[in-house]
Design goal:
Strand order of the largest sheet: 1-2-8-5
Number of strands: 9
Bound molecules: cobalamin, iron/sulfur cluster
Structural class: alpha+beta
Helix content: 25-40%
Number of helices: 11
Strand content: 15-25%
Shape: globular
Radius of gyration: 20 Å
């Protein structure tokens, strides 16, 4: 197939699965790098945010993909995931917000490999600033809450990036934009329980965000009120209060159930080797193995909030 038809095929096959796609020149990796370096020079990132996340972006070109020409940006709609724990003869359900599960990455990768034929055509990338890339590629716009929004998905989606050797359509690099709807709205700013969204600057105060603390081990800072915790991982508040997400709020996928015994072991924070293979498999199916060391702690604050622990 000539390259132009291949691009059309990529767009239409992904669209059939309800994914939205954009393709931009690989040269724009430099623009992303420039922006992050500029923010760093301006001292906009705290050392913690910089060392933990920003310094890990990789703006180099992939060695294993000869003739890399473009970046494919895909947004896959994703629901909230409900996880249920039996505890003291009762069931308690908690939410994992959209974007944590990687099943759509595999779906997109399979589709691209099927169309493009051989493995040296695309390569997944998790080391670029995905929101900025999605916005500049014209796929999304920023919300005041710093998340990016796509028509028909709100912020309930997962962004997936691939290097590719496909050519790219011209003139697709856009200016950074905030959604029109945010001009007259501050629901997320007022709703954020920890003041991470501020009117002084657009960029999130990452070290005020609950997700910054509940994705990694350690004690929660005292200024996070126990009542502010709302999800098994991350936080849903600034997405939950957003009027643009209203159509998607009831889209909840019931994913996993943990028995009384499994819940007790998770709450005791036992080492992974003491968990049954079936428990590990459930956690794996939630794509949460990398968070296994924080699940017990996060579950305990949610049960305490309900007065059940
Ligand atoms: C680091 C990180 C975090 C950190 C820091 C957050 C941050 N804002 O940087 C912490 C741990 C706090 C975090 C929290 C969350 N995260 Co996070 N996170 C990331 C990560 C790894 C990098 C983000 C990044 O590039 N930060 C650097 C800053 C500089 O980039 P930026 O936020 O785009 O900032 C731009 C704007 O501020 C803009 N800007 C500046 N001034 C102005 C002015 C105007 C008017 C406008 C319009 C724009 C604008 O310019 C900046 C860039 O130059 C990405 C994954 C990835 N590889 O990209 C996921 C990612 C952004 N996270 C995501 C999610 C969902 C979350 C959480 C909801 C947690 C959760 N999973 O439940 C919360 C939400 C917090 C929030 N309200 O933003 C999703 C976002 C999906 C979406 N729909 O947007 C991503 C893409 C992961 C994924 N695979 O899908 N996250
Ligand atoms: S994810 Fe939660 S803590 Fe972080 S900015 Fe949104 S509402 Fe605030
Ligand atoms: S809550 Fe309002 S201000 Fe915040 S992202 Fe949604 S529309 Fe924009």
């Amino acid at each position: 197939m000539p390259p132009k038809d291949l691009i059309g095929e990529v767009f239409s096959q992904l669209k059939l699965q309800k994914f939205e796609t954009s393709i931009v020149s690989i040269e724009h990796v430099q623009d992303l790098q420039y922006v992050m370096e500029k923010h760093h020079e301006q001292g906009i990132f705290s050392d913690e945010l910089y060392n933990e996340w920003i310094a890990k972006f990789d703006f180099g070109l992939p060695e294993n993909l000869p003739n890399v020409r473009s970046l494919i940006v895909v947004a896959a709609p994703q629901p909230q995931f409900q996880v249920t724990f039996r505890w003291n003869a009762e069931s308690h359900s908690f939410i994992i917000p959209p974007n944590y599960l990687c099943y759509s990455d595999r779906q997109v990768e399979n589709t691209l490999s099927r169309i493009l034929g051989h493995e040296k055509s695309v390569m997944a990338n998790n080391s670029l600033p995905k929101k900025l890339l999605a916005v500049r590629s014209g796929l999304a716009k920023y919300g005041r809450n710093n998340l990016v929004y796509i028509p028909g998905m709100g912020s309930f989606h997962r962004l997936i990036i691939f290097y590719s050797n496909l050519p790219y359509p011209k003139h697709t690099w856009q200016e950074v934009q905030m959604m029109e709807e945010c001009r007259e709205c501050e629901a997320c700013l007022r709703g954020c329980p920890t003041g991470a969204i501020s009117s002084d600057r657009f960029l999130l105060c990452a070290e005020r965000c609950i997700s910054f603390y509940n994705e990694r081990a350690g004690d929660f800072p005292e200024w996070i009120k126990p009542s502010s915790h709302n999800a098994l991982l991350g936080c849903l508040t600034c997405q939950g209060v957003c009027p643009l997400n209203k159509p998607f709020l009831q889209w909840i996928d019931n994913r996993a159930q943990f028995s009384e015994e499994e819940t007790a072991l998770l709450l005791q924070d036992v080492p992974q080797e003491r968990l049954a293979a079936a428990t590990i498999r459930k956690i794996e199916e939630l794509d949460c193995l990398e968070y296994i060391n924080v699940l017990g702690r996060n579950l305990s604050v949610l049960l305490k909030k309900k007065g059940k622990l």
